[in-house]
Amino acid sequence: MICFGPIPSRRLGKSLGINNIPEQKICSYSCVYCQVGAKQKYSISREFFYQPKQILEGVENQLSKLAANDKPDFLTFVANGEPTLDENLGESIELLKQLKIPIAVITNGSLIANPDVRADLMLADWVSIKIDTASEAIWRKLNRPHPNLDFDKIIEGIRTFAKQFEGMLATETMLVDGINDIPYDLERTAHNVFMANPSKAYISIPTRPPAISIVRPSSAESANNAYQIFTRLGLNTELILGFEGTNTGFTGNATDDILNICAVHPLREDTMRELLANDKADYSVLEGLLNEQKIVELEYDSMKYYLRKR
Fold first, then answer.
1. Bridge partners (DSSP) listed for residue 237
2. Chain-centre distance for alpha carbon 298
3. What is the DSSP string of 78-131?
């Protein structure tokens, strides 16, 4: 599975997802709020996964199945883990440019001190980098990084990249109740974001089942406080607090669509209903995948979600 969607994105419109990390989740972080679940493999070593030609063929195949009015606004590297762990990321981006669709990469920024990673990201049209905190202690508690990562080097790498990048740079700060939403910490985080000079600074909260079940999103009051702190610094800030919608792309193969999307993007119950309807499938498809234990049903904030089983 390489591609999924397009799915509605609160930042990118219709986003055709590219999962360039096959099978097992491989990441440099194990964030407490991760929607893909707890880490399976920690790594900060770049590897060869798919060949760039496979990525291109996978995207072309997915595009060929879509209706004319369902074409994506972006091709987005949003992996089952950290996309910059892919040694072929830059070459894959270059190949995809022939499709004339803007390319986005959503990264946690953990490897950005590496000049080769920065060079790969330079090729994208839009890059989102995670900046959840300015405190190393909070970073370790919230993002649970690989033990060999250096917080200060990551921050410096982000600043270096931001000065050189000619595309659209966004930052994303995920607020978790009682961890990184204290006013003093938010002030420091805002200054770190300001140093990156992003085109847009997104502030979000967990809206899907997190890796750690006791994790709760920050309150509306805390999110608004963060927004005020960011905007006072002159940051172009946007709050992302709600559900992005149910309109996912579909190919006519409900089983493949469900498995491909659920691998990196938990499907809410209402989204699942709409996807089945669009694929002209009934609930027996969903029940079959649950019975075969290919996906699992979770509940979060009084809503059901479906996630691919690891």
1. 201
2. 19
3. --SB-GGGBTTHHHHHHHHGGG---EEEEE--TTTTSHHHHHHHHTSSEEEEE-
- Which of 8-12, 239-243, 272-276 has the lowest average pLDDT? 239-243
Residue 183: count other Cβ atoms within 10 Å of its Cβ: 11
Burial 279-294 (b: 16+ CB within 10 A, else e): bebeeebbeebeeeee
Q: Are 28 and 146 in contact (CB under 8 A)?
A: yes
- Both structure tokens of 121: 């990201």
Are 210 and 32 spatial neighbours (Cβ–Cβ below 8 Å)? yes
Helix boundaries (H) for the chain:
52-64, 89-96, 115-122, 136-142, 151-164, 183-196, 220-232, 254-262, 269-278, 283-291
**Of the candidates 132, 133, 199, the residue with the CA atom closest to the CA atom of residue 170:** 199
State the first-to-last Cα distance of the chain, in angstroms, to the nearest integer: 14
Name the pTM for this structure. 0.78
The C-alpha torsion from 134 through 140 and 144 to 150, rounded to 10°, is 80
Give the 3-state secondary structure of residue 62: helix
Distances (CA, A) of 67 to 31, 201, 252: 36, 33, 10
174: left (phi over 0), alpha (psi -120 to 50) or beta: beta
For tokens 């905007």, what's the residue?
Answer: 231
> Distance between CA atoms of 264 and 19, rounded to whole angstroms?
8
* CATH number, span 3-244: 3.20.20.70
Could you give the CA distance from residue 194 to residue 81 in angstroms, rounded to a whole number? Answer: 26
pLDDT in tens, 256-279: 778 777 655 567 788 788 888 888
Token pair in block for residue 40:
């399976």
